[in-house]
Specification:
With 115 residues, this protein is an all-beta fold. Helix content is 0%, strand content 57%. The protein has a single domain, classed as Jelly Rolls (Sandwich), CATH 2.60.120.
Length: 115
Amino acid sequence: MLIGQTVFVPASGDPGAVYDGPWMPRQGNDFTCVLEVMRQSSSGWSLAVDVETKNAEDSDAAATNLGTLTVSAVGTSTQAFADCLELVRYKYSFSGNGTDRWIHFRMNPPIWQPN
């Protein structure tokens, strides 16, 4: 079984590829996200994960950005976020430099803090 996602990162563009994750119901006001980048075809890429939040009745365009987790190498990164509304999602922005490449990563489920 292959765990995670493999994504093509184009050689140019800033960002070169953008993907919106699904909206998740919040389970507390604050949480920590854990991003694992497991493999890469070559270096020279970056991944910015924006954490967005909104209430259920709001449009996607009205979402508020809580912050950004940025990585550019294989490894595990964590970051805490606060003040979540009813729904939360991750927005992935990939950038490359020079040649096309791929990365394999997974975003673990949020670790919610009790209120």
